[in-house]
């Protein structure tokens, strides 16, 4: 079996850390520790915490199955109902302990135009 990608492990860890603590309170060291990686290896995969945060928001959108809302092969109401059912079931799988990463980033990313834009795009 191939060795899991360190980049993917860092991205997984970042999603968990950002979800639990938000962007400002999450440091590169905490992300690297959660991923089981040396802090220095972080910069082999991401130029900055902001770059990692943008990748995290992209992954979050995919995991939220936002694409199902744009599936024109189904009527709009059916798409919305299916999406809300998916979100409900996903929240239940996580014991209703997770918030919305787009909302978290939108609330605290005023210092980063790129993060603000990515969060807005996800919410739109």
Structural key phrases:
124 residues; mainly alpha; Tetracycline Repressor, domain 2; 7 helices; 67% helix; 0% strand; globular
Helix content: 55-70%
Order of helices and strands: HHHHHHH
Structural class call reads: mainly alpha
Integer count of domains: 1
What is the level 1 CATH name? Answer: Mainly Alpha
Say what the CATH topology is.
Tetracycline Repressor, domain 2
Report the span from N to C terminus. Answer: 39 Å
- Our estimate of the beta-strand percent is under 5%
Name of the CATH homologous superfamily: Tetracycline Repressor, domain 2
With helices defined by DSSP (H or I, 4 residues minimum), what is the helix count? Answer: 7
By CATH, the architecture is named Orthogonal Bundle
Radius of gyration: 16 Å
Overall number of strands: 0
**Overall spatial form:** globular
* Mean pLDDT figure: 87
Largest sheet: none
Summarize the structure.
This protein is mainly alpha-helical and 124 residues long. Helices cover 67% and strands 0% of the residues.
Descriptive notes:
This protein is an all-alpha fold. The chain has a single domain (6-63, 94-123), classed as Tetracycline Repressor, domain 2 (Orthogonal Bundle), CATH 1.10.357. The chain has 7 helices and no strands. The mean pLDDT is 87.
Q: SSE layout and pairings?
A:
Elements: H1 6-21, H2 28-35, H3 39-45, H4 49-63, H5 76-93, H6 101-108, H7 113-123
Helix pairs in contact: 1-2, 1-4, 4-7, 6-7
